[in-house]
Amino acid sequence: MHYFWENTVLAFSALWANKMRSFLTILCVVISITSIIAVVSIVEGMDVFVKTKIASQGSNVFTLQRNNPIQVLTDFDAFLKSLKNPKITIEDLQLIRDEITLAEFVDATISKGDRLTNGSRIVDNARIRGRTEEYPALGEFPLAFGRHLSRIDIQQRRHSCVLGWDVAQTLFPQETALGKTVKIGAKHFTVVGVCEKKGNILGNNQNLFAFIPVTTFLKMYGSRQSLEIKIRTADMQSFTAAQEAVRQTMRSVRHLKPAQSDNFYINTSEQLISIWEAISAGIFGTLIGVVSITLIVGGIIIMNVMLVAVTERSREIGIRKAVGARSGHIIMQFLMEALILTGIGGALGILIGFTIASIVAALTPLPYSVSLAPVIIALVISFAVGIFFGVYPARKASRLDPVIALRQ
Question: Which terminus of the chain is more exposed, N or C, with fewer CB under 10 A?
Answer without folding.
Answer: N
